[in-house]
Specification:
The protein is an alpha/beta fold. The chain has a single domain, classed as TIM Barrel (Alpha-Beta Barrel), CATH 3.20.20. Helices cover 40% and strands 13% of the residues. The strands form three sheets. Strands 1, 2, 4, 5, 6 and 8 form a six-stranded parallel β-sheet that branches. α1 crosses α4. The protein starts with a strand and ends with a helix. The chain binds zinc ion.
């Protein structure tokens, strides 16, 4: 089995929602469940050894638009969120992450040595990520508290605007260049992440925001869960030029399993073949090289191909990659090595 360290999941969102409905998030993760995609037993079964676990503040008003007769759709951006509302939810999700660590249901990792040790011990290696920074204040006065709680990665924006920058909508077909980039506060945030050693994630940001980070940050450029725009032209995917900059910086792109970002028609349909995943991987490997492509499933955050189904089916993708001709050393890079390399660089190890 090829162990996978994965660049993006929303398991904390699922656990938090179930907690709000009266459930026990620790027991649900540790003992397993049939809902969603990730828990400890299913992760173990599928060789999902760890990943970046997002603190994401839900946009209650967001409903994805149905495609028109041409298959085109454009969902308006979700409304900006209130700071106090967002901070409260972020603290509750960070608390779940800490409690999971305390209960030995997963290991909250703060270094690549932590990740490697957890993987050796067979316990899920979680890294805390913030997907959209609505829970951070303009002066970044609370950022060190999140850092102390284990935050080691953040995306300045999700697919909505905030005080740090602008996100791209869920739309097909659409250019990646949908609006302004970072705000002045967004540049401050990038510099703070460089100083502290927090990875900056470019998934969900506008193309202008991407280039703003590229000219400011001293880290490798990464998009934790994005695919190739030329194959699936949604605003969330990456152009060839963006991929060239990622390669140049020593960064990576994590393959997003979301069917809306894999399929040529971008439809939200789980009957999406593994070949759509392979096509994106092949393209990105050809464009950037094997050192710059990884996995970023979006488990618990999106509709994924039914041939994967959940974390337990993760090795179906690995098997398809083997059939495609990827050698063992390539698979080791794709599945975990590349992530560990860029995390170590961003974290000043
Ligand atoms: Zn996302």
């Amino acid at each position: 089995m090829e162990l996978v360290f994965d660049g993006h999941n929303d398991v904390l969102l699922r656990l938090w929602r179930n907690m709000k409905a009266g459930g026990d998030p620790i027991a649900e993760f540790a003992n397993g469940t049939t809902s969603g995609h990730i828990d400890a037993p299913r992760a173990k079964a599928g060789g999902l050894a760890g990943g970046l676990c997002a603190i994401y503040i839900p946009s209650g008003d967001l409903v994805l638009k149905e495609p028109d007769e041409k298959g085109h759709y454009e969902t308006p951006l979700a409304a900006p969120l209130d700071y106090a509302f967002s901070l409260n939810i972020a603290l509750e999700k960070a608390s779940i992450a800490l409690r999971l660590d305390d209960a030995n249901a997963w290991r909250l990792c703060r270094s690549t040595a932590d990740i490697s040790k957890a993987m050796e011990e067979g316990i899920f290696a979680a890294v805390l990520h913030m997907e959209g920074c609505e829970a951070l204040d303009p002066e970044l006065a609370n950022l060190d508290v999140f850092y102390a709680a284990g935050l080691r990665s953040l995306g300045p924006v999700w697919s909505r605007h905030n005080i740090f920058g602008h996100g791209v909508p869920f739309a097909y077909p659409m250019t990646t260049d949908t609006g302004p980039g970072l705000t002045d506060l967004g540049f401050d945030l990038v510099r703070a992440c460089n100083r502290l050693g927090i990875l900056i994630d470019l998934a969900h940001i506008t193309e202008k925001g991407f280039w703003d980070v590229a000219k400011t940050s001293d880290q490798p450029l990464i998009a934790s869960h994005s695919n190739a725009h030329v194959l699936t032209p949604v605003a969330r995917n990456l152009t060839d030029k963006q991929m060239d900059a990622i390669k140049e910086s020593g960064g990576l792109v994590g393959l997003n399993y979301a069917v809306t970002m894999l399929r040529p028609d971008a439809r939200d349909d789980a009957a999406t073949p593994l070949s759509d995943m392979i096509r994106h991987i092949n393209y990105m490997v050809e464009r950037m090289g094997i050192d710059h492509v990884a996995l970023g499933s979006d488990f618990d955050g999106a509709t994924i191909p039914q041939e994967i189904q959940d974390a337990a089916g993760n090795q179906n993708l690995v098997a398809a990659l083997k059939t495609e001709g990827y050698a063992d050393e390539d698979l080791a890079k794709l599945c975990r090595g590349n992530w560990l390399r860029v995390l170590g660089q961003a974290w000043h190890e």
